[in-house]
Amino acid sequence: MYDQQTHEMHLETTHPDGAEEWSCPTCGRRFLMQLSPVYKKVVLEAGDDYAGHVGSTGGIQMGHAEITQTTEPAISDALRPWLTALRGIRLDDLDQVA
After folding, report:
1. DSSP secondary structure string, the chain?
2. Domain range for residue 45?
3. pLDDT bucket at 81, cuts 50 / 70 / 90
């Protein structure tokens, strides 16, 4: 992976509706983040899209997501026999059982 710059975001204000306004003093990135009732983020100024942006408040830290790809999904040993059994069942045949 490449060396990515990391910028620290600062909480500027919390609006009456609960939306938090964050800004990056390094590149000018600004966004509004609403956590409740549904997570929503609106970017006001993009700033440096290639930099990783981190920040924290109240013991919670936000950062950039790390995405990895696996060749096989993680399945527990307890689930494997059930999946093996389901592979042999045709779901359209279930309508005839009753």
Report:
1. -----EEE-EEEEE-TTS-EEEE-TTT--EEEEE-SSS-EEEEEE---TTSEEEEEETTEEE--------SS----TTTHHHHHHHHT--GGGGGG--
2. 1-63
3. confident
